[in-house]
Amino acid sequence: MIESLLDVLQGTSAWWILAILAFLPLIGMPLSPIWILAGLKFGFVNGLGVIIAGMAINFALAYFIAQGWMREPITRFLRRRGIEVPDVQRNEFIKLTIAIRLLPVLPQFMQSYLLGISNVPFMIYYIFSFPPQIAYAVGFILIGDSLFEMKIGILFLGASALVAVTLILNIIRNRGII
Q1: Any alpha helices (H) in 68-178, and if so which ranges?
Q2: Phi, psi (5° rounding) for residue 71?
Q3: Domain limits for position 12
Q4: CA–CA separation, 128 and 115 (whole Å)
Q5: What is the pLDDT of residues 12-37, one digit of tens each?
Q6: Structural domain tally of the chain?
Q7: By CB neighbour count within 10 A (0-12 exposed, 13-18 middle, 19+ buried), where does 9 fall?
Q8: pTM of the model
């Protein structure tokens, strides 16, 4: 199965992967399978580069969609799912951005739209959205990279990175840091 997946990936350009990362999460596509595929196709360093570029485009698009013509439909969509738009004070923008990005129960597209309609300033939203998402992506990229040559040690490292990020985030949340 991995060989047939690799055959398909060999013919796929980085531009297609970048477009998938930039646009499909806007409509709810889960990111973890794409992150694994990026690691499988490009390896760790190049895979991380493609993923960060995709995040950069996706975060900007999601924010401006949520701030613009889709604000009301997105607000209704989130409310139907029991998610209320937080009323945020100016001194809480960074804390809110990090806290929402650390919530694994909310898909990335919902996180982006919720932050966009919460009136978090764009630069705070943009800058503080990357670290939590990159932390998750690293584990999935390592898993994808390990599948290419069946490197069990790298596979274990990727899985360990995901467990470590999850544990650290739980400690931060439980201590009320965020």
Answers
A1: 71-80, 93-101, 108-117, 122-149, 152-174
A2: -55, -55
A3: 2-174
A4: 11
A5: 788 888 998 999 999 998 888 888 88
A6: 1
A7: middle
A8: 0.80
